[in-house]
Amino acid sequence: MTSRIFIALALGFLLITGFVACDSGSNLSENYDNGNVLPLATPSGFTVTSISSSQIDLSWTASTVDSGVPVYAIYRDGLQIATTANNSYSDVELMPNTEYCYCISVSDTAGNKSPQTNELCVSTLVATFIKTFGGELRDHGFCVQETSDGGYILTGQTKLDGNEYSDVYLIKTDSNGNEVWSQTFGGLSQEESYSVRETSDGGYIIAGITYSYGAGANDIYLIKTDSGGNEVWSQTFGGPLMDYARSVLETPDGGYIVAGFTGIFIQGKPSMLDVLLIKTDSNGNEVWSQTYGGSGLDRGYDVEQTSDGGYVIGGYTTSYGAGESDFYLIKTDSNGNEVWSRTFGGSSSDNAFSMEITSDGGYILVGKTDSYGAGGDDVYLVKTDPDGNEVWSRTFGGTLDDNALFVIETSDGGFIMTGYTEVKDVEDDDDIYLIKTDSDGYVY
Residue 212 burial by CB count (10 A; 0-12/13-18/19+): exposed, middle or buried? Predict the structure, then answer.
């Protein structure tokens, strides 16, 4: 009752501003108009006829009026958004996975108006799609992130017509995966990108490798763009060795942190590799760099900033651990100095490719294991506490090879990961593998 009194008192102001809250229509006295007859009947049969990720279709039973043709006013979230003489309306260009609330009223040419219907709330669907991008030659996507406008930013490599080598490929899509724009970056030789993030200014930061620029055989390639994907600046990092970037993240000071690895390759095979961490300022100038590892092959694939201002790196190592290779988790302070490191795995090969900080302050890592599981390589999921101590680990897969390349925590506290699973024991016969678990890593 209190809310209805407030609505009645504020009605004059709301009509001036164009904001009219949806009402149940039971208080008819609110709808008299300058002494006209009793208001029209509230439209009936108000319902949702179809929903997509970007559109909601509404319909209702046609009203009978005494004067002229009925005109319906449609309100969304309290604001009048349209009028129509039809008894249906399609609300388009909506955000996916978002709730919208509607009501309608009807008026005639004499100015009589009905109360509004009860509020009808409905959510758009999560956008799902399958899209392809590229030309007639080789195009690969290596990283995708959701952007603040509900769309996506995708990076990888593209081989342009007439070129022997590939360039960095950056693609912006809308929420339905439709291309908004694309850009390429690179020189006369080979370029690839493995990580992209939206930056606080609405642009993007891209990290990968370049053979066209820099000091060595291949160097880390860091590219900053504006919101339209136009290059603002680019930087290279590395020396005479081979240097790779696999993950980049904007830091609170406006700079960037880049994780990857650096080392020596002999006849195309790695001979010695160390995890590499580079901190830059907002213009991509190096502030400091650190390496981690031993005498073997140590790679960094993912980096996140921790609540204490330090960093955590996920990857794998052959220098430490129990087997041929093990999951490798490194915690640093804000200057990249190692605070602790942990390894996870068995007597064979265990490689981590993705890592995330979880809501409890711990970490989740995923990759593949040849030490555990049902056969061949299996997906290997490891959960730790904030100090990097293992809480639990799980494996997923069958008798052939299975691998996961990416993991995130979901809103229900569980985890979702994707990679590939081998269908038949033949080369190039793999399917995409998507696994959702509960908070303890179980699938029921």
Answer: middle
